[in-house]
């Protein structure tokens, strides 16, 4: 599966939610709703942390964990 497919899938999933969804990759923080931000950050081999805040955070965490897993990306959803 190409990285582009993963990026579009992740961004589209994130945009279904009102919550703020931020990906932390090493010392960078990226808004997951930004396809451009994901393109510059989502490279294989890194492990990522996902920070989710907002009214639908619980649903967003589940959906985001599923979409990252679907594309074999190592993600840890951080409980705030």
From TrEMBL:
Source organism of the structure: Paenibacillus baekrokdamisoli
The name this protein goes by in its record: Uncharacterized protein
InterPro entries from the UniProt entry: HPr-like, HPr-like_sf
């Amino acid at each position: 599966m190409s990285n582009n497919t993963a990026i579009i899938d992740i961004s589209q999933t994130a945009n279904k939610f009102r919550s703020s969804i931020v990906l932390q990759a090493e010392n960078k923080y990226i808004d997951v709703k930004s396809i451009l931000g994901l393109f510059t950050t989502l490279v294989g081999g890194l492990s990522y942390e996902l920070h989710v805040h907002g009214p639908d955070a619980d649903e967003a965490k589940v959906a985001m964990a599923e979409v990252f897993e679907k594309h074999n990306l190592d993600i840890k959803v951080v409980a705030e």
